[in-house]
Structure formats: structure tokens, C-alpha cells
Amino acid sequence: MGNLTEIQKSFLKALLQESVDFIVIGGYAVKHYHQERDTNDIDILISRNKDNIDKFILAIRSTPIEGSISTTELLQPLKMVHLPNAANKEIDILTSAGALDFNLAIKNVRTIVIDDIPIPILGLEELIYSKIYASTKTEDPISLERDFSDIHSLMNVWSQAFL
Fold this sequence. Notes:
By secondary structure, the chain is an alpha+beta fold. It has helices at residues 6-17, 26-33, 50-61, 71-74, 102-105, 124-137, 141-160, and strands spanning 22-25, 42-46, 80-84, 89-94, 110-114, 117-121. The chain has one domain (6-158): Beta Polymerase, domain 2 (2-Layer Sandwich), CATH 3.30.460.40. Helix content is 45%, strand content 18%. It is globular.
């Protein structure tokens, strides 16, 4: 699977070093279950408790990513921050993902290893649910088509588990 950028690698390593509670969701998680999925950014859902946000802030300061993110900003629901910046979105930080409950989702993560980095990704059923939810919230036809394709591919993977 691979293909992490240097910024993504250093960021993920920093999150792990500081013991930040996070889950990789979105296209990169889909890519784990369905290898044909193409994506350039990595979407990261973080737990919004104050201790975790403090660890997240420490982690980001130890990376080459410039800019500032406030604790107050990350404690808000439905917040998305693009890193290193809005023009160069290699990493998207999400404080919530629809109705997906972080504390329930973390119980069903899978850990994959990419470039010697253990990465927690969203479980298959939660990923299907999150993609269905995302498809109801977008008005962009390209995003909608990609979401439907992801849902179809993930449902095929899920159905294979019962054969």
C-alpha cells in the first residue's frame, strides 16, 4: 500500500510518539480494504478530549509542519484543518466525522503497517457507515461519485466475509 509523503510519515510518527488517540479514515482507509482506491491525502479523526488535544498540539510542534492550531479550535465538533495548509492538503484533521462516535470506532480499528509505521484505520463496517453519511452531505458530483464507488467496493469486501 505505501505512498506516504515525508510530511505524512513524520506527522504519523509524531502522533504515535505522543500517544495521540487517532484513527485514519476516508480514502486511505478505503485503500486498505480495496487496493484500487487512489488518494493523495490522509484523513485523520482525533479524539476531542482535552488531554488528547494537548498531546496532539505537542506532536504537531515536533514536525516540520508550520502554522498554528489552537486547542480551542480542536475541541470544536465538525472542525476540519488542512495540513500543512489549505493550498497543500496532505493531511486533513477532523474533530468529528458525521455521527461516527470516536470512542466506539476506536474499539474496531485495524492496525496496518506502512513504511514501518503502525497506523490505526477505521474498521470496515464503520468505514462503510461513514462513507454513506459523507455521500448524503456532499453536493460535489466528483466527490459523490467517488463516495458511491467506495461504498460499492467496501460492500463487496464486507459481503466476501460471509461467503
